[in-house]
Amino acid sequence: MMDSTAFFFASTVGYFAAFLCYLFHTVFKSAPERETLGITAASGARAGGVGWAPWGTRLTWLTMLVAFAGVVARTVELGNASNWVMRVFLPVTTTYETLTFFAWLIPLAYLIVERMYPIRSVGVFVTGAAFTLLAIAASPAIAPSKIAPVVPSLQSYWLVIHVLSMIVGIAFFTVGFGATAVYLWRRYRGIPFEDVRRVEEMAYKAIALGFPFYGIGGLVFGGIWAKEAWGAYWEWDPKETAMLAAWLVYAVYLHMRVRYGPASKAVGWWAVGGFLAVMYAWIGINYFVGGLHSFT
Fold first, then answer.
1. C-alpha dist (Å) from residue 197 to 23, 37, 109, 217
2. DSSP-assigned beta bridge partners for residue 19
3. Which contiguous run of DSSP H or E holds residue 51?
4. Backbone region of residue 291 per phi and psi (left: phi > 0; alpha: psi in -120 to 50; beta: other values)
5. Residue 106: enclosing H or E segment and its boundaries?
6. How many CB atoms lie within 10 A of CB 141?
7. Sign, Cα dihedral of 216, 217, 221, 227
8. 238-260 vs 222-230: helix axis angle to the nearest 10?
9. Cβ atoms within 10 Å of 210's Cβ, excluding its own
10. DSSP state of 150
11. DSSP letter, residue 219
12. Residues in the chain with pLDDT < 50?
């Protein structure tokens, strides 16, 4: 089988190309309101006769398949060093594997939501995020110099279930963040809420989908694995605490949306804060605070 790095390199190029297509779509479309009213972008966003939005979606689908091939290839590579990886068939035990797996999962979450809300400007954020994650994964500080077996303390099915559920939640949160950014940008350009309602709905639905995955993955599945690995369901570890705080921020967002309505800009900004809290809990805290999760 081809080396996984070749697939991930091709995915990096593919996501960047998709990012450019979505960016050209966003820049060149003549009526920003067209998408938000539910009309597909295929009828607009043409520069030089090119429908940039459909090409962005096609490239995202194709690149996502290439990225998935890279995930499979990486699993096989790790399996040669650890039979346990082949049994669970999911490489998510290090930062490198999690980043590359996430770079496949975010576009998948976006394409699922895009079927309901064909607002292609959000693709700029999604493909940009996937490209950035693969670029970070390829950096010397993250990319492993050799393939090492998974340490015994991490060889738990509950670890895989815990991590998979949480990154599914984060993938939908990323889509929600992209949609929220588009929504706020258009609101501050003076576009009435009635013309951007579908963008806000897209953000809400994505966050609502991610919320149970993130919470159950962290608080339930993570607790079960913690009991198995450390002897206690909860240790108030910095990463555990940051995850709980991030989940509560999104819980407040869902409450605020019901209480103040979807038209409130403050609700949108709170959603942005929730995403930043999740990013800090997932990645940022590793570089500032030690703890039981320092290996991730």
1. 21, 8, 21, 30
2. none
3. strand 50-51
4. left
5. helix 95-116
6. 6
7. negative
8. 170
9. 26
10. P
11. I
12. 30-45, 47-49, 295
